[in-house]
Every structure is written in C-alpha cells, then in structure tokens.
Amino acid sequence: MIVAFDFDGVLCEDRFPEIGREYPDAVGLARRLSAEGHEVILWTSRSGRRLVEALEWCDRRGIGFCAVNDNAPSNKARWSAEYPDPPRKVYADLYLEDHCPFFQHYAEGDPERAVRRMVDKAVQYVERYGEIWDVKETDDERL
Question: 68, 82, 110, 120 — which has fewest CB within 10 A?
Fold first, then answer.
C-alpha cells in the first residue's frame, strides 16, 4: 500500500515555517507502515531549506520515506514507460492530510485530537485493505 503523509499539521503541529511539536500517533504510524513494507511518501508543500529541516526532523524520529513529493518506486516502475515525464500529482492509496473536511470536522479546535482520529481510521483502513493492495502484487492478482 502507498501512504502519503503531510508534514505540517499531520506529523507535527502546523507552525510553518517553524516545525511544531510532534504528533506521536502519526509519527508512530509512519514508522510502523514503513517497517511493515508499505511505501510511505512525505507529501508536503515545504521546499528548499524548510524541506531539508523537515526531513532531518523525520530522520531523527526514525521515519523512512520511499519518496518525497514524488511517486512511490512501484508506481514509477509501473507507469514510467507510459508517462515518461513525472506527473505533478502524487498517487497514494491513502493520504493523511490536515486540509480536508474529515480533519476539519474532527478537529473542533483541537488539531491533535483530529490527528489521533485520522490515525485510528488509517490503521483500520490499512488493516482491512493493506494485504489486498500489497505493493508486490500485480493488478491482475488483486482482482
């Protein structure tokens, strides 16, 4: 499964351009998914020095990414012949993002609460569909 994590507002409190305090539930989920062999992408609007700071922050917390603001290796391998120019849109099976109606609905003035709820839902989703969308399988095997 390919999972894209936003940085500001999901892995940490949104204090851009500074880095906010860690959201341990989301950090733990990113580490867990990566360790289980899922392709974890850092999907952020940060660039330049601010992106380097975010990557260093993630590295200190043991979060490994297969891609940063780019498609996962499995997608690149599968689609590179048909789409030689990398698309701007990053594909994932699951996106953890704080700028969506789900997040805003559950935040109720407490963004960390919304992140915990989003992580709980993501865990349920991965547990239910993760094996179906195993990155080692081909589409024909999934059907």
Answer: 82
- CA pseudo-torsion sign 43, 40, 97, 78: positive
The pLDDT of residue 105 is 65
Residue 108: which region, alpha, beta or left (left: phi > 0; alpha: psi -120 to 50)?
Answer: left
Helix axes 111-129, 24-35, angle to 10 degrees: 20
% the chain with pLDDT above 90: 53
Gap between the Cα atoms of 23 and 110, Å rounded: 12
Is residue 48 classed as helix, strand or coil in its secondary structure? helix
- Residue 58 pLDDT level (bands cut at 50, 70, 90): very high
Is residue 140 a part of any domain in this protein?
no
Considering the entire predicted model, what is its pTM?
0.82
Residue 64 lies in a domain: yes
